[in-house]
Amino acid sequence: MARLEITFVKNLVLKTLVVGAVFSLGLGVFVGWWMALSTAFGGLVAAANLKVVEFVTRRMMEAAENGHAQSTFWSIILVLKMLVLFGTIFYLIVRLELDAIGVVVGFSAFLPAIVWQVLVSKDESSTQD
């Protein structure tokens, strides 16, 4: 069961990149290249965020399997991840002056990617039973 969840997140990262690229391409065509670039950066940040969550989750599960169920260290890592995430988004919008709406749209690419991944994994699990 735990391996299935790790696979779910790994596939979610890929789907987030795909959805982010589609959003970026669409906004590039209809709004402009700066919005496309902003959206692409937002999608990359979302995918990187999911990748870190996948890494931490995998490490927590491995520790639990080995009998080390204390998760304080990994909880601190997740809090630090959030601080880095906020700092990265601040840097993209304030320092690089990317379009805030584009960054938010790109970062939000993980939401339809979750729906996509759930639908795909639902189909896979229903054919196995």
UniProtKB/TrEMBL annotation:
It is found in: Cell membrane. The chain crosses the membrane at residues 12-34, 73-94, 100-120. InterPro entries: ATP_synth_I. GO terms for cellular component: plasma membrane. It is a multi-pass membrane protein. It comes from the Bacteria. Keywords: Cell membrane, Membrane, Transmembrane, Transmembrane helix. The keyword Membrane applies. This is ATP synthase protein I.
